[in-house]
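Justification of resources, computational component.

The compute hours requested in this renewal are based largely on the per-chain cost of generating structure records like the one below. Each record pairs the submitted sequence with a full structure-token output. That output is archived, and it is also reused by downstream analysis tasks.
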Amino acid sequence: MKKVGQFLKEAREKKNISLENAQRATKIRRKILAKLEASDWDNLPSPTFVKGLLKNYGQFLGLDTRNLLAFFRGEYDEPKTQKATAVALAKRPKLRFTPQIVTTGIITLAFLLAAGYLYFQYRSFTAAPLLEVTEPAENTKVEAFDVNVVGKTYPDANLKINGQKVQPSLGGTFSVAVSLVEGINTIIVTAENRFGKISTEKRVVVVETKKVGVIDQKQGKNVNITLKIGPQAANVRVELDGRKTFEGVLVSGSSKNFSANEKIKVFTSNAGSTKITFDGGEEVLGKEGEPLEREFRK
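The structure output for this chain reads:
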């Protein structure tokens, strides 16, 4: 019987997609994708987190995610748990049900349900939402000018990274590329529930060696732009000749160069903090906080 990892690997190879390209498209690290394809569940995070990763990767590969998750549940430890439960139940002494026991049980169950409902209602008003950031670790040192922020929250939480809204997956997981500047960078992740309760995680990432931006200008390219961010951060997506090349949160002070043959399309969540240098001129795309899409052609 095929394992979950085989379905993933065969689907990827059938589409002739490398792990590196899959990493760029899904924002899931290559080594995590390799472990998923190897069904290496023991060296992956919790089953809940893995389900979110499988759903994202399966959707990217065009697989039926419901069947994929069903195979995962069957392949993981659930059969062992069910067997252990069955053995424990078989060893229990038989209980004789009398009217008095049934009545007491119904009253107790009703009381527990009411107490549980009130408790969860209280928690929903007073407790901040779940927020786990697994990557990057605190005080991480890198040479590149971007880093993936990976974690988990509730699917309906209002998730923001450095003030920019990010949409978590259906399972609540998220993996977002965040641009960095040379030196010390502070990444602030917040999750807010519908009652206004906020959870916050902070990570300090240090860029030690200055390198060229994500995409360098190349000879022979007809469209070249320089994108600068500030005074606030912005969530940016860049398409080169119709192909999405970058998507993530750019921090204030960051700068990136992009080159294409025919056209460059830029989407920003904060036009007032997005400055473009193009064809010898420089302009701020719009107003602070305004989402905007612009296209640059030769």
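The longest strand covers residues 183-192. Residues 211-217 have pLDDT under 50 and may be disordered.
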